Amino acid sequence: MSKFAAYFLMKNEDVIEFLKEKTTLFEGSENLTCKEIGDGNLNYVFHVTDPKTNRSVIVKQAGDTARISDEFRLSTDRIRIETDVLILQGKLAPGLVPEIYFFDPNMNCCVMEDLSDHEILRTALLKHQTFPKFADDITTFMVQTLLMTSDVVMGHKEKKELLKRYVNPELCEITEDLVYSEPYNDYHQRNELFPANQEWIAKEIYQDDNLRLEAAKLKFEFMTNSQALIHGDLHTGSIFVQQGSTKVIDPEFAFYGPIGYDVGNVIANMIFAWANGDASGNSAFTQWVEETIKQIIEMFKEKFSKTWDDHVQDVMAKEPGFKAWYLQTILKDTAAVAGLELNRRIIGLAKVKDITSITDEPKRVRAERICLSAAKEFILGRDHYSSGNDFLQTLKQSADKHSL
Ligand code: SR1
Ligand code: MG
Q1: Are strands 100-104 and 33-36 parallel, antiparallel or unpaired?
Q2: Stretch 249-260: mean pLDDT
């Protein structure tokens, strides 16, 4: 019987053997090399190369606990969801996700295109690199994968079939806890506050009953609004870039949820990049980020509206005024989620390097307070966001409040 008939966590040598036994990707190759390169919170990622031909692939395997902490016991089914969703997204948004070569349900792993010629967007942004095409690419990705899988466009029965296929309770629970609960009620006692901001966060966030109530309302919207097949974790660590090219990876948190969850995550993570650039005094970079934030909102609206006009199917969705109402609800959710993501990455356990790599204490204090003040405004004032400028104004006003 094959060694790979029953699941186990593979080591480098196993991955090489696995590829040779299960795929034809390296037929005739003899001395493959393999290195585990995963640095995410959940999975194991192997880079396999044939040094003779330079052909290379990525093998991604899901473990049954998270890498970040054994506390998170997770169904390995997430890799089936991730693989299926990448294939679907590749059809809806060609060229914007890696190609899938192979999936193995026993070993809970998939083999995909190696994107080593790209770089993780967060890593590039930490070096204050700019990507003029990013706003265009990410808005194409979002409109194509979100609007095109919604009830507005898709046949209702087909949509419900997808909804069933992508029920993702364990990964959703992580989001429900880490994004929607713990920053407001540390009921698992695993939040990590930067000591110099501890008192400020206690007063501004933990003791704000109104903010907690609004987070509670948003949590139940996230859990019940099955609007589109969302990526579910669209931060700058889930995006590869090179000049002129963007590839979205890691949709293991995908499920039918609110469209604004993806858009809000992109905006919040651009704000983290801005806060890092601001702490270094790099105004050319922060100006590019500001422009990009505006463009993301404006291009999303423009493409959404055009795609709607070209593809809307539902008879009632064609009612005059409905498109504008629907889009406005997405912008409201976008603002709220931008706020929730900003809060959870600073207060909760899953941090972002944009903030934690700021070594100067007063600068980190300021960066965190800018993000948290903006977050509060986004959440509490979520009804009032309709343009890219609105989002930017909140960031700028928060920055003005917290001078060094
Ligand atoms: C336990 S996982 C922590 C975070 O990492 C993932 O990328 C998601 O953002 C999740 O919330
Ligand atoms: Mg991920």
Answers
A1: unpaired
A2: 98
Interatomic CA distance for residues 384 and 335, integer angstroms = 9
Q: Return the number of other C-beta atoms located less than 10 Å from residue 109's C-beta.
A: 28
**Positive or negative CA dihedral for 27, 33, 38, 42?**
positive
Check if 41 has its Cβ closer than 6 Å to any atom of ligand 1. Answer: yes
In this structure, the residue with its CA closest to atom 4 of ligand 1 is 350
pTM as predicted = 0.97
Q: How confident is the model at residue 69 (pLDDT cuts 50, 70, 90)?
A: confident
Contact between 144 and 138 under an 8 Å Cβ cutoff? The reply is no
3-class secondary structure per residue, 179-243: CCCCCCCCCCCCCCCCHHHHHHHHHHHHCCHHHHHHHHHHHHHHHHCCCEEECCCCCHHHEEEEC
Residue 40, SS3 per DSSP: coil
Residue nearest to atom 2 of ligand 1 (CA): 41
Spatial contact of 98 and 85, defined as CB atoms under 8 Å apart: no
Residue nearest to atom 11 of ligand 1 (CA): 175
Query: Residue 178 Cα, ligand 2 centroid: separation in angstroms?
Result: 14
Residue that has been written with the tokens 């890696």 in this structure:
98
* Whether 230 contacts 146, CB under 8 Å: yes
Residue 71 in contact with ligand 1 by CB distance below 6 A: no
Reported in sequence order, the residue ranges of 107-174 that DSSP labels E, i.e. its strands, are 109-113, 119-120
Verify whether ligand 1 is closer than 6 Å to residue 72 (CB atom): yes
Residue among 71, 121, 178 whose CB has most ligand 1 atoms within 8 A, to mutate: 178
Structure confidence by residue, pLDDT tens digits, 157-184: 999 999 999 999 999 999 999 999 999 9
Q: Say what the pLDDT of residue 72 is.
A: 87
What is the rounded average pLDDT of the residues 350-363? 98
Is a pLDDT exceeding 90 seen at residue 132? Answer: yes
Q: Residue 345 pLDDT more than 90?
A: yes
Ligand 1 center from residue 30 Cα (angstroms): 37
pLDDT tens for each residue of 183-195: 999 999 999 999 9
Which residue is listed with tokens 């190369």? Answer: 49
Tokens representing 313 are 């199917």
Dist. CA 175 → ligand 1 center (Å): 7
What is the spatial distance between Cα 293 and Cα 282, in angstroms, rounded to a whole number? 17
pLDDT of residue 11: 97
Reading the block at residue 321, the tokens are: 């005024």
